[in-house]
Amino acid sequence: MADNSSSDYRALFLQAEEGRRLAEEGRRLAEEGRKRAEEGHKLAEEGRKRAEEGRRLAEQRNLPTTFPEFIRACHTLLSIPLRVAASSRSTKGTIPQPKGKYCPTNLLQWADLPAKQQDIFTSVCNYLEPVRGAAPRHFPPHIALEELSRRISHRPLSTEQDLETYERLAVEDHIVDIIDELCKIPEAQKEFGLGDGVRFENHANSLDDAYTNQSDSQRARPDQFCIHRLDNNISTLLTTVEYKPPHKLSVENLRTGLRPMNFWETVVKPRTIPIKEKEKLKYNAQHISGSAVTQHYHTMIEDGIPYAYLTNGLALVLLHIPYEDPSTLYYYLCEPNLDLKAEDSRAFDQPKTALARALCLCLMSFRSAPRDQNWRNAARAQLHIWKTSFDYTLSEIPEEELRQVPPDSEYTSSEYTGSEYLPSSPTSPPESRRMPTRSQPGCSPSDLGRHMESTDSSDSDSNQMAPGRKRGFSQITSSPPTQRAGRSDSHNAQGGRFQQNTAKFCTQRCLLGLCSSDLLDYNCPNVTRHQHGEKVERHHINGSTLLRLLNQQLDHNLDHNCWPLGNRGAYGSLFKLTCAEYGYTVAAKGTTSTLWTEVSGEAEIYRILQRVQGAATTVFVGSINLAKTYFLHGFGQVRHMLLMAWGGDSIAKLEQWPTLRQEILKSKKEFRALGVIHGDLRPENMLWNDELKRVLLIDLHKCPCVAWGKENLNGSGDFSQNRRDIQQKVKQWNPYIRSTRANIKAMSLGFHPAICNKARSSLVSVNSRHRRAFTDGDSSKYKKKALHLSRWKGYFSFIYNAYFDSSAYRRRACPSG
After folding, report:
1. Where is there biased composition of kind Basic and acidic residues (predicted)?
2. How many CB atoms lie within 10 A of CB 82?
3. Of the candidates 434, 320, 469, 452, the residue with the CA atom closest to the CA atom of residue 377
4. In this predicted model, what pLDDT tens digit does every residue of 533-577 receive, in sequence order?
5. What does the alpha-carbon distance between residue 388 and residue 394 come to, in Å, rounded to a whole number?
């Protein structure tokens, strides 16, 4: 019995124990389930947070950036990843002999530039990131910059084109964006004188280069882009930037070659050329760097710009020519990827990135005025000439020397803390700084600076020269007045103007009366000034006197009452001139000495057309030769002008072309009656004159003409009496016609092969039978051969005048193009 009770008790105990174990197991499983549920909830929460963070980051990457974010992103995404291809000497082909360029006498470090750029950068930040309110987001989002970074970093810099593409995408376009935003803020627009914004464009070659058919490697100013200020459809040159790829202009050569020195004596005219390896490498670095900055310095002098910079993508060299001492060039070498430490939270408060450096220099240029023509002429009269070109300098250095790293080329911070090389401190005694003056006819430096506004008064620390240094240039320049805070609205496209271009052109009848010493035209807007305070009916002076007065006026000061209008053709650029004494305002076609041999013949054509001046063509006053050079950006050095009445606007701007056809034919007929055929009847050379209600034909230097007899001058049209004159012209042209092969070769250089073949067949045929074509004027096939030839070359232009007067035949036999 007892045993049974013990067994039952034990069974009950085991059952109870099993129940407790099961219960404990249930609680454990429940706890694990709860924990798993909590873990699942936690994972779900983390997933939700990650999704939200991803959405936030995606939204942020697609969100336009603030100005500080934009500056930082451009540096980290566009500057730092930049790679350079393996060094190679990529200049191919024949390198032409270098041309003479103005070069500085002294090279100095621009020590106070960081402080000046910091002031400008702080002002920009205050406008684009105001203290009050949320920072505006006006700039490209991160995702766009990341995509741009991917495309840029995909290909390392290896050519000039690579560098130009990189600079356009990574720097130039973003400068335009920033300045566009500043233009929307009236206070910023006024402070910096921004106008309507800025534009980057290729440097325009001078017309002399185009006229002489120079190749790209012969250009005087290669690899340059121009930065223009836009204002009311007027484009003003601000500064220029020159690109030199790092495989040609290395950072190491810049570090070694750019040192404070007497540039002329150390680089251009050294006493000895070193032969030891280290000294020779240093000498090479100075020549390479010096040639690069001299090329840009030459442009700065001719274009009258105080600031410019050159870059190889990894480094920038900021340049400045002071007003008082143009023989000194200040430089500032900066390497953004090394100058700026990205981990420093305050680093981007300073303008140390490539974008910030270039932006601040542009804004400094906005605040400055271009140097006037007198300053440029006086400066170039004193400067040394160095026959150099960058590619030629490289070609003169052996390949093995170019591959070596020059000494003293280690990186050092671009922050100059000492005052040893401040612009106010000369690097050499006054005697060594005084430059020899080159004789330049007609360049009177005593006039310089009379009307020049100071471009550098805000740079007073930079430009206060020691007494010994100022001697030579400041003695021939008057002290410029205090600079205004912003660029004056009176500046026009060529700079150095401090007067409003408000003068109105004299009428055709006014200048026609002037040239014939006849009556005044009371419809002329300047008639009161012509009368000179007297009640007279006739002009006080004649055309010859006006030419003399204008010539004297321009010889005294090219910037006074002389405005370039920006209308430029293949052979000249248009100016507006006003006679200060009598108020006559005329148009002037300015051209260079090289082109003058081609353009000067236009005066003779106007003489032949004297009877139809003021009817079929504009009134021609005469020509003048300038004693000084007018430096016109993108055109060349203007030394000659043709003066005439303002003709009007091109018919290309008019919509009712068919209604003008009768007037065009009328003017052409009046030309033909005087033996002149206009050889370049493009819409740009046909002007509608509201005063005369006529179409005036201009640009006459290509007009072929024949000296007809009296009958033809009276318009009889009987050409048979002039056969003897034509045969005489045939004899004059015979040497050219005999040179068949030379002519074919010359034509093949500039024409399509199909045109060359046509010209070749015409030339060979006419070469053997041209005399019969002249004597037997009834032979149409010879006429056609001669007409084709006259289209391609100018040798037979007189045939066109004599035998092919029909404009319908001309259109059929010699189509345009």
Report:
1. 25-59
2. 19
3. 452
4. 888 999 999 999 999 999 999 999 999 999 998 777 778 999 999
5. 11
Residue at 39: amino acid letter? E
Residue 424 structure tokens: 């106010």
Q: Which two tokens stand for residue 340?
A: 């700026």
Contacts of 269 (CB under 8 A, 6+ apart): none
Query: Running DSSP on this structure, what letter comes out for residue 139?
Result: B
What is the pTM (predicted TM-score) of this model? Answer: 0.73
Residue range 168-201, pLDDT digits in tens: 999 999 999 999 999 999 999 999 999 999 998 8
Q: How far apart are the C-alpha atoms of 548 and 540, rounded to whole Å?
A: 14
Q: Average pLDDT, stretch 90-96?
A: 62
Which of these, 164, 166, 284, 297, lies nearest to 220 by C-alpha position? 297
For domain 508-697, which CATH number applies: 3.30.200.20, 1.10.10.10, 3.90.550.10, 3.30.70.20?
A: 3.30.200.20
Bridge partners (DSSP) of residue 60 are: none
* Phi-psi sector, 408: left (phi>0), alpha (psi -120 to 50), beta: left
Give the span between the Cα atoms of 656 and 669, in whole angstroms: 21
Q: Where are the domains of the chain?
A: 67-83+105-130+164-447+455-476, 508-697, 719-813
Higher pLDDT, 318 or 775: 318
The two counts, helices (H) then strands (E), for the chain are 32, 18
370 to each of 300, 496, 591, 645, how far by Cα in Å? Answer: 10, 5, 22, 29
Task: Answer for the pair 505, 521: CB distance below 8 angstroms, yes or no.
Answer: no
Query: Within a 10 A sphere around the Cβ of 449, how many other Cβ atoms?
Result: 24
The answer to whether 751 touches 759, Cβ cutoff 8 Å, is: yes
SS3 202: strand
Indicate the SS3 state at residue 514. helix
| Continuous H helices in 491-592 | 508-515, 527-531, 543-556
Which residue matches tokens 């400067």? 383
Summarize the confidence of residues 284-291 as an average pLDDT: 94
Cα 737 to chain center, whole Å?
Answer: 42
Q: How far apart are the C-alpha atoms of 197 and 209, rounded to whole Å? A: 30
Burial of 331 (0-12, 13-18, 19+ CB in 10 A): buried
Tens-digit pLDDT profile for residues 384-416: 999 988 888 888 889 888 889 999 889 887 665
Cα separations in angstroms, 21 against 13, 27, 29: 12, 10, 12
pLDDT class for 3, splitting at 50, 70, 90? low
The DSSP call for residue 524 is: S
Contact by Cβ (8 Å): 472, 382: yes
- Only one residue has tokens 């004193």, namely 382
Neighbours of 1 (CB within 10 A): 5
Mean pLDDT computed over 200-212: 61
Q: How many CA atoms lie within 13 A of 609 on its CB side?
A: 34
Tens-digit pLDDT profile for residues 133-161: 778 899 999 999 999 999 888 888 888 88
| Lookup: tokens for 659 | 């209604």
